[in-house]
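Form 7-S
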Amino acid sequence: MDHFETLTPEQAYQHLVDGSAILVDVRDPQSFRAGHATGAYHLTNETLSQFLEKTDYEQTVMVMCYHGHSSQGAAQYLINIGFESVYSINGGFEAWSRTYPQAITAL
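Output:
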């Protein structure tokens, strides 16, 4: 994969449930604390090196942001540094929270 692809929230949820992909959330810390998809890793500039150390580059990664725009840049970055399969979630957390309110955790 030379370029990220996109997923619907429904496709992303299925991947998360069946364990075939990991989910990262690139929103700001305040938004992440207020609510994020259950099981999401908070990927920031500060947590990037830890994420890279512990994540297999062959693992499928799904990237979530607010509305599905910022996640595209983050997804392409992960592709550029060597991840093989990366997806941006269409509609971001806004779409996820409307579709799967039961799958949201707040800190």
